[in-house]
Design a protein that fits this description.
heterodimer; A: mainly beta; six-stranded mixed beta sheet; five-stranded antiparallel beta sheet; 54% strand; B: mainly beta; seven-stranded mixed beta sheet; 0% helix; globular
């Protein structure tokens, strides 16, 4: 029941863009995106609650396709601080969240 | 965002001993808290859902007699790893749902995690 994330890892140069995908085999109520730095707890980035919703903060944005049970996270003009592992968390109608395996993003100068 | 704390940050113990980890919501009341375990370079695996005043709901494959969860108040949940063994060594992270009023609804805020090493 874990969502599937792709790619598993990506390496960027500063200023380049990246897309991380998250898909589920079951109907989704919401999608949550987190970033985790090594040795630290995940930090909440954003939540998408409605199909068709798109949301962004600075140069990180996300979309949620409810019908396809997919979400994508877009990182534009990446910065060194964007490095980390990105997790999507998905919720069905229950009260728990399942996390994808994570996408390791490395931004190099 | 909402603040969740964990204590201790790390613990090293001998095999066979019990370890208690505390999870507190500092600026809000959390009726539901979650406990996760994360092995190196892997995702967060939900262990159990902790509801204030009732028994925790454990995920399949998680031994409830080994991982004791108590949610005695709206701001505190504890996880006790009983008779810990080296294979229990992991990063344990709790999270709590923030209430609707004045906050982003329906998301979880994570504690900083507790790294357990069992020798």
């Amino acid at each position: 029941q874990q969502p599937v994330q792709s790619p598993q890892a990506v390496i960027l140069r500063e200023g380049e863009d990246a897309v991380i995908n998250c898909s589920s085999s079951k109907a989704l109520y919401s999608v949550h995106w987190y970033r985790q730095k090594h040795g630290e707890a995940p930090v909440f980035l954003m939540i998408l609650l409605k199909g068709g919703e798109q949301k962004g903060h600075e140069k990180i944005s996300a979309s949620f396709n409810e019908k396809k049970q997919q979400s994508s996270l877009y990182l534009t003009a990446s910065q060194l601080s964007y490095s980390g592992t990105y997790f999507c968390g998905t919720e069905g109608m229950g009260n728990d969240m399942r996390f994808g395996a994570g996408t390791r993003l490395t931004v190099k100068p | 965002g909402a603040v969740v704390s964990q204590h201790p940050s790390w613990v090293i113990c001998k095999s066979g001993t019990s370890v208690k980890i505390e999870c507190r919501s500092l600026d809000f009341q959390a009726t539901t808290m979650f406990w996760y375990r994360q092995f190196p370079k892997q995702s967060l695996m939900l262990m159990a859902t902790s509801n204030e005043g009732s028994k925790a709901t454990y995920e399949q494959g998680v031994e409830k007699d080994k991982f004791l969860i108590n949610h005695a108040s709206l701001t505190l949940s504890t996880l006790t790893v009983t008779s810990a063994h080296p294979e229990d060594s992991s990063f344990y992270i709790c999270s709590a749902r923030a209430p609707l009023a004045g906050r982003i609804p329906d998301t979880q805020y994570f504690g900083p995690g507790t790294r357990l090493t069992v020798l």
